[in-house]
Amino acid sequence: MGMTKRIAVIDREACKPSVCNHLCKRMCPINRSGDDCITVNEADKKPLIDEDLCVGCGICSNKCPTLAISIINLPRELHETPVHRYGRNQFVLFRLPVPRRRLVVGLIGQNGVGKSTALKILSGELKPNTGMLGKSIPWDQIIGMFKGSELQDYLTKLKERGVKVAYKPQNIDSIPRMWKGKAGELLSKVDERGRLSSVREGLNLAPLLDKDLRSMSGGELQLLAVAATLLKDAGLYFFDEPSSFLDVEQRLIVAREIRKLSQDSMVMVVEHDLAVADYLADQVHILYGKPACFGIISKPQGVRTGINTYLEGYVKEENVRFRDESIVFSKGAAESLKTQAFLRFPAYKKSFGPFSMATEGSTLCKGEIIGILGPNATGKTTFINMLTGKVKPNQGVGIKDLRLAYKPQRIELGDEQSEMTVREYLAGEIDPGSKRSKRIVRVLELEKLFERKMGNLSGGEAQAVLIAANLGKDFDILLLDEPTAFLDVEQRLRVAKLIREVVEGMEVAAFIVDHDLQIIDAVADRVMVFEGERGKKGFGHAPTNLRDGMNSFLKKLNITFRRDPHTGRARANKPDSVLDREQKEKGDYYYS
Ligand code: SF4
Q1: pLDDT of 216-256, one tens digit each?
Q2: What predicted TM-score, i.e. pTM, was given to this entire model?
Q3: What does residue 536 show for φ and ψ, rounded to 5 degrees?
Q4: Is pLDDT at 180 greater than 80 in this prediction?
Q5: Rounded distance from Cα 488 to ligand 1 centre (Å)
Q6: DSSP secondary structure string, 405-456?
Q7: Distance, CA of 474 to CA of 478 (rounded, Å)
Q8: Is the distance from the beta carbon of residue 387 to the nearest atom of ligand 1 less than 6 Å?
Q9: Is residue 402 predicted with pLDDT exceeding 90?
């Protein structure tokens, strides 16, 4: 086992020696002085970097035309033995999260810094190599790295008997491909502990049971995936982003059921909606590092301190700053100053099958962003489709000749699109040479994905590319349906800022449907609140200011949020607690 001080990672999909003729090798000062720091791998003709000879100057990484090389000089505090490395110049993980009995352990932080690797190790799918490539490290040696912590017991059990892990994947779109049939049939099949009726009631699954999986919405599939995981008989339950596509009420219901499960099991959850993570977890580990290069899993902290530490970007106990600035949320509702009328839309009515809905008309101002909040299946997307003329209303008319940019809730790529590189895909959607496109690509950090195939991107990477493909278009109305799904907190805030910049700069208007209240607060000028009964009826109120909108939305859900004094982030109050009662009396459901 050895300490790691410097990491050189080469993205082998992005690396194209035919483009640069091994420029890195020719530029490396160590190679130029006669040593073999960078060599060429015979098999694929791509470079290999010797991390012991490398002095970390970064010249190769700066010169690489496809941004395939990352050189990281780790701070002294992080010079330690890794848990696992996939291969030479590949991703490396330091430390592991600790499963704890009777506690929900949350993993918060960046995407791409080791959650899947940690899961593979904890489930026994991957035996860690402590960074010693090509060697089989004895289990006792691995377990010795975690002496004195609960991980020692967990890994001993994993070694001796194995641990069965029930896993709720991030990507729920794969479920209808793996299972054909009705939701109820799937749940009966996986009910290993005879808890079907309690889970069915807890998650309010009755309306889903007769549905065919192929006809289910994102929110319905998410509920089903969570339910199927809760029903399994396992030693460790791992939920990867259980809240994507769920509305606020469903998020809290799911959190409650997962908490119940933790009473007699070990539970880990990855969650980027911080209000949900706060409500759900007892302890959190912060995941940080550089995506696809290295990841560090912090020691566990209490949920409040852990989320605050993450927002601050500085782990005090480890003396490591992983982000330059801290993230602070505003506690009050911003008032929109946009007053110049841009377009008027009428009231609509629409019914199809057993569902009927109505919305109020209003006027949008130039540069205005309307956040849309409300339960799933109450007509939010249908409203947008009526506005743009895609769906014909029973009453009211669509707005003619609008240029629309629309990102649907779920990202479904055709075969041809999956085979395209990100560069090719974006070139087909937007003008990559325009100033706006270049700015979007830079802010969303997409350049490093350019040579990757669309079909190989992670959920968060694909989301960012699709957001860019819409923000870069020439549009009058932008509609983003759940742009934050699969994005980590930093990416969510970056996207919110970028949407404001583009929509205000172009003096157009936007509708953003999202269930992450903190993001709606950060992005919207006003909110349009939908209410109703899922799948039966819906009503969309005319846009109102943020304070009134949030209050009326949360009043219907009977939930209040307090603000964390240090970071301003929203924390759900316990029902009937002193704060809950006080805030309800004053009518302050969200802003203090
Ligand atoms: Fe060579 Fe290392 Fe400098 Fe890259 S960072 S040019 S490999 S010394």
Answers
A1: 988 999 999 999 999 999 999 999 999 999 999 999 999 99
A2: 0.91
A3: -115, -55
A4: yes
A5: 31
A6: EEE-SS----HHHHHSBHHHHHHHHS-TTSHHHHHHHHHTT-GGGTTSBGGG
A7: 10
A8: no
A9: no
Pocket test for ligand 1, best of 54, 63, 69 (most atoms within 8 A of CB): 54
**Residues recorded for the chain:** 592
503 token code pair? 């929509």
Q: Is the dihedral of CA 407, 411, 414, 417 positive or negative?
A: positive
* pLDDT at residue number 512: 96
Q: How far apart are CA 581 and CA 260, in angstroms?
A: 25
Give the separation between CA 35 and CA 532, rounded to whole angstroms: 70
Contact 114, 240 (CB under 8 A): no
CA distances (Å), origin 232, targets 50, 118, 194, 209: 45, 21, 9, 18
Rounded Cα distance, 289 and 296, in Å: 6
Q: How many helices (DSSP H) and strands (DSSP E) are in the chain?
A: 23, 28
Domains and CATH numbers, the chain: 6-83 (3.30.70.20), 95-123+163-321 (3.40.50.300), 341-557 (3.40.50.300)
In this structure, what token pair is assigned to residue 408? 């649907």
Query: What is d(CA 288, CA 268) in angstroms, rounded to the nearest whole number?
Result: 17
Helix axes 435-443, 489-506, angle to 10 degrees: 160
- Region of 240 (left: φ > 0; alpha: ψ -120 to 50; beta: rest) is beta
Report how far Cα 386 is from the mean position of its chain's Cα atoms.
29
What is the per-residue pLDDT for 78?
A: 80
Write out pLDDT tens, residues 28-80: 999 999 999 999 999 999 999 999 999 999 999 999 999 999 999 988 878 88
38 ligand 1 Cβ < 6 A:
yes
CB of 58 shorter than 6 A to ligand 1: yes
**Contact indicator for 431, 423 with CB cutoff of 8 Å:** no
Work out the burial of residue 52: count CB atoms within 10 Å of its CB; fewer than 13 is exposed, 13-18 middle, 19 or more buried.
exposed
